[in-house]
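### Sample
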Amino acid sequence: MQSSPTAPTQNAKLISFLVRRYLRFNKAQPFISVTAILAFLGVCIGVMVLIVAMALMNGFDKEFERKLFIMNYPITAISSGFEAINSSVLEEMESRFKHLRFSPFVQMQAISKRGARMEGAMIFGVDFERESKLNPIFQTAFEKTQKAHQQNFGLPYEANTFDIIVGKTLQQQYGLQLNSKLLLIFTHLTPTAMSLTPTMKHFNVAGIFDSGLIAYDKGYIYTNLESLQTIKELPYNVYDGIHIYSDDARKDILALQKHYPQIHFVGWWEQNGNFFAALALEKRALFIVLMLIILVASLNIISSLLMTVMSRRKEIALLLTMGVSATEIKKTFLYLGNFIGISGILVGGILAAIILILLSSFPIISLPADVYGSDKLPLELSLMDLGLILIGSFGIVFSSSYYPAKKATQIDPLQVLRNE
């Protein structure tokens, strides 16, 4: 009765002793120890590369999402064509959804022309003050415009009817400066005595925005509402749509659609669905490919344990004849394989953390700041990705240790001792 409480302790000590013994460098058969070291390094490098790669993929995903989110707006309300969006609808939305921010707009397609060069453009007529509260990129450009106007004229800036704010790429292509003139040719036709001619108007460059994405910096131009309402011959209180800012766009778009079924609402994720689907597919493919590194490293764990079992056949047979159970032998090799794999996972995680800290703190790898908006790598490791990496790694390590451990319990002590 007194021996039963101490039996589990004795078993644990025996298993711990055997694990330490088998981890020691085997001078008689050094290849076994070398294989174990390679297994450790393989798991370590695999986990490290996988964590860093997922942080990079997540960082670039979030960076592109942030830029596309800013320029596309969380929610956009668009007139269905049968019922126009006017100031009364805007006021009703503002009173009903006080937690949202709204900016009405009028849009037109046009061709910008300066000298012999021409570029297609999407022109947005907006209220500069309202738009600044929704779009940080536009807000920065508008604040610079106000500051420059204050320095040059000593007066607060007031948007003129035909002022525009253009993107950095368009400004560089045309060599534009503040107060430069830019000709816009609109698709809206103006009747003349003999035919219909496109509407052409010179606009004054009042500011320059920089979104970090060439497609937007080249193709988007902002002007005030009155400009496009005048060109499209719209009443001052009628709009093509409303830009809406929301902290929870997927939830708020459902509420808006419920209250305004006659208006079409588009979420930012719907405007770039194919792009983000491609990024998600690329991320999953990269995760699977890099997880194969850990899987290949786990083969070294299997090889190392099987060679240990084969080289210790006589010792295992003696232990079994002395009363050591098959379960204890199995646990010994399970713990041995898990120790090699788990230590590799932990060291790989520590190395990955050090690499991420260095990459985020110092410009070791420089990016073109004019394209990405920053010269540092965008890094962001989500808890879900980290959890999947750890779960997958632990699962592979545990599975790799099971077969050699089971093989060790299948040794026949009588046959081994007879042959030895």
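Residues 75-245 form one domain. This sample (ABC3 transporter permease protein domain-containing protein) is used throughout the tutorial notebook.
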